[in-house]
Specification:
Helix content is 49%, strand content 11%. By secondary structure, it is α+β, with helices and mostly antiparallel strands. This is Ribosomal RNA-processing protein 7-domain-containing protein.
């Protein structure tokens, strides 16, 4: 069998041996692809972060910590953020606790009217969102096939050591020699990583019916967060009614008694009508000046004709006088 490639594009190939289980009595090799983390918006910690793709579906932070310990020893691994966690933290889509009109208003004007939120405000919003959610019904999250994760290490040197350790796994071996590959942990402490299987499903069945007190707390937090965001949107709409944008237009509202802004369709329609009136006025002024120009040209032409007739009359008179001239004897 041909050797496993050490790299594919920018990714280093990390083979991991998954041992046999009672449900699947055969060991297999799973391939994780690793590279330096290079997000669209760079951060100060990117030099010590690694981007993983095709992580096993049952991955947890504890699993990755054990894997890194087998590669470069203990003390290098700090944290891991999985794909679904990054989407929850960075998603710009409105949450259930965000009124729809407020979400549209903030999406259209929020970033222009306020400065970037600081870390404390972001953390506070995340806590409010978490408190407003219903209790979880799963003790452990399974990932989709081919899912990704970002692992943060102690320093940049640790990230380099991990990539070097992955490269050493491919030296002098073939794809069939899997004894030297790191082993994916399957027997972890149940207190750290909840078990899968029947116990996982039984726990889900129990958690699907939370207590009335827990439900009431989540509902109260949701209502408070929803009302607060409605108030924030109303205050922003009130400011926008009197503040022109960069084009000199003021946000259109449906009426004096409402603080919510008009829909984007109504605003665009009002803007279109305003531009049409401006173009019409400009056209009228242009036609007026053209009328003046035509009148002035007519007057100048009439003046030239008048002068020509006067000059021609003078020439005729001069010729008549010359015909009656009698020289002296």
């Amino acid at each position: 069998m041909s050797p496993i490639p050490a790299t594919i594009g920018d990714f280093s190939v990390l083979p991991v041996l998954i041992p046999s289980l009672p449900s699947f009595p055969k060991s297999v090799v799973h391939y994780i692809y690793v590279r330096r983390n290079a997000p669209k918006v760079p951060t100060a910690d990117d030099s010590r972060r690694l981007f993983f793709t095709n992580v096993p579906v049952d991955s947890t932070e504890v699993h990755l910590r054990s894997l890194f310990t087998s590669l470069v020893g203990a003390g290098r691994f700090e944290s891991a953020t999985f794909e679904h966690e990054r989407k929850d933290d960075n998603s710009e889509a409105p949450s259930d606790a965000q009124p729809l009109h407020a979400a549209r208003l903030l999406a259209a004007h929020g970033n222009k009217k306020r400065k970037r939120d600081d870390a404390e405000e972001v953390a506070e919003r995340a806590r409010d969102e978490k408190a407003a959610r219903l209790p979880k019904s799963w003790t452990r999250t399974l990932h989709r096939s081919g899912s990704t994760a970002v692992v943060q290490l102690a320093d940049e040197k640790s990230a380099e050591q991990v990539l070097k350790a992955i490269g050493k796994l491919h030296r002098g071996g073939s794809s069939s020699s899997s004894k030297k590959y790191p082993v994916w942990p399957t027997t972890l402490d149940a207190k750290l990583v909840p078990r899968l299987g029947t116990s996982w499903l039984k726990a889900h069945n129990v958690l699907s019916y939370p207590s009335k007190a827990a439900l009431q707390t989540a509902i109260d937090n949701f209502s408070a967060l929803f009302s607060r965001r409605e108030q924030e949107a109303a205050e922003l709409a009130k400011r926008l009614r009197n503040e022109p944008d960069e084009n000199g237009f003021v946000t259109v509202t449906r009426g004096a008694g409402r603080t919510a802004p008009a829909s984007m369709t109504e605003a665009e329609e009002a803007k279109r009508k305003m531009l049409e009136r401006a173009e019409k006025k400009k056209a009228e002024m242009t036609d007026f000046y053209r009328f003046q120009l035509r009148e002035r040209q007519k007057e100048e032409q009439a003046e030239l004709v008048k002068r020509f007739e006067e000059d021609r009359q003078k020439v005729f008179e001069m010729r008549a006088k010359r015909g009656r001239f009698v020289p002296e004897s």
